[in-house]
Design a protein that fits this description.
0% strand; mainly alpha
Length: 96
């Protein structure tokens, strides 16, 4: 996906945000595949599911803090990014 920032000085931050969001998506998808291999309703399934949720949650907040909060992107940049992300992927980004 190619997204051009409204203000060129935010382009690098938006590119980093996109890469971070895709990293989180890849982790979530990999964890779902691993869970599908386990028998639902078992202790191992629930323990693994909880562990994956904790990892995903921790990574999510670390990425939000680093790529959204610290980057201090203006709302209009985030809105434009979200709009193009939805047009390309069909769902909203996890990090915004």
């Amino acid at each position: 996906m190619n997204h051009t920032a409204i203000n060129a000085k935010h382009q690098r931050a938006l590119n980093s945000l996109y890469k971070a969001d895709r990293k989180l998506c890849a982790l979530i998808n990999a964890n779902e595949i691993k869970l599908e291999a386990l028998e639902p309703g078992t202790d191992k399934y629930y323990n693994t599911s909880n562990r994956f949720e904790d990892r995903e949650g921790e990574l999510h907040w670390n990425l939000v803090e680093r790529y959204v909060d610290e980057a201090e992107l203006p709302k209009r940049e985030i809105d434009a990014f979200t709009k193009s992300y939805v047009a390309f992927h069909g769902y909203t980004p996890y990090l915004v």
